[in-house]
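Q: Okay, next protein. This is Pseudouridine synthase I TruA alpha/beta domain-containing protein from Pythium insidiosum. I've checked the sequence twice, so it should be correct. Can you predict the 3D structure?
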Amino acid sequence: MVAGYLGTGYHGVQLNKNVETIENELRKAILAAGAMRESNFADLSKIDWSRSSRTDKGVHAGCIVFSAKLLLDEHATVDPATGRVQALVDALNAELPPTIRIFSATRVNKRFSARRNCVLREYEYFLPLSFLEQSFLATSTADTSDVDLDAAVERFFAALREYEGIHDFHNFTKARSFFYRQRAQQKLRRVGGGAEASTGGDDDDDDVEDDGGERDDGSYTSAEYSDEASQYEDGLGTFRKELPRHRRAIYSCSGSLVRDFCGEPFLRVHIVGQAFLLHQIRCMVGGALAVATRGMSSDVFRAAIHTNRIVRVPIAPAEGLVLLSSSFGGKLHSVSLYEDFNTKLATEHKDVSHRVLLSAEEDAAMQRFREDVIYREVSRAWKSVTKVDRWHAYLARSFEANATLDAAEIAALLADAERAQHEKKRRQRSFVQQNRSNEIVDNKPRGVLPRQFTTNLCVRYSIPPGIFTNDVCRGIARHLRLGNVPIDADEQQIFEYIDKCGLQALANEGRMLRTGRHAPSSSGQRA
């Protein structure tokens, strides 16, 4: 099911005791429509319930996908060509409030999971241009009439670009006290021989669920960290150990000016990534805002992203955040949200029916809901004075905490990080070159391409991971074996070669290799 909803008045999407959530509304509608047994109402895991993303309190979704094993009425018709079950859409919308809509329902392969098969999530964040100007009040005593707003906007956009790539976002999540306590409890259970308790739902992109509390600014007391935190932070609370859970890939992060957003100029942030930590996007926006308004120096901001130094990053209000879209993949790639360049490739699997979840008409209805309902609510919510005052308090606390950081120490940390990155690239290049010599006769791209090449390919060309990118990698690996690309070429040189040949031409070659057909001889020229 492809759905959209207004997050106002709900404590996020996921079921949570004693508070209203989107999934509670959905399960009531599904039960009323006769698509679920009453015995499964309390435990959605019995019907393999899954969602493509999890949103926090107050966050809206223009497009989110749910998957489950539902009961179909005997009169419900399944379109044999598309898998659509329009009767289910009509029945659910009749039970749901107007702020929650189902745009399509499709019968898909039983192995599909909205969470596990989701390879990319896309968000947007809107904030008034006036909010950027007002943010200077928290960190400067100067008259706002002297503020160069155009320069601030450019700093904001530049800071957003800094997030692209693979980084350790340990400073950009506000769930650490929960995480530390959770890990300590799990350790106690293991020591005691007890079984680890179920979380009551599937584990998706947000690692821990928002409890609806008000302290989402990160103002946790030292007592809450206590012994648990000492496992991950030094005794002074200065540095944090690297954890794999904090490493996230951001394919695209950019900003633009919308001159007329419900009658007022707004800034729009567009973010595409694999998965996000709790509050990560709001912290990313807050960090960029702090840099733009001189609430954080550019060096401290870069240290927050590129080093393990603990930096206080303010969190932007939830009301501007909208889940925009998702992309799906996997070995079978049996489902696509839209018909795209991966769809045609996925239909080559003759044993599995490939389904596209949104037609042009359904997509148009979804866009109307987003523009008429969600965007209007976003504009209205920003008019609340308390939102601005609360943000000023966050920004001021962040500014005060980071003012104690030693500039020379931060500069040295950044220099060390840059040297470490260069050394890492040198070792990787040496390893890859050795592998290329050993693997040059094979047909597998992994042995001849740099590590994380596919992710960096997606970042550079703003394309989702999937069959297409895998075919591109096969194609470029073939050119390396043919000698069209020097055996010692680094990642940047490979990208320059891709620019020369064209993504589509290399993908076509890779596809022929994948399907066992003979690829044409290549001379490195554009096809």
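A: Here is a summary of the prediction. The chain has 16 helices and eleven strands. The two ends are 40 Å apart (CA to CA).
Q: Noted. On to the next one.
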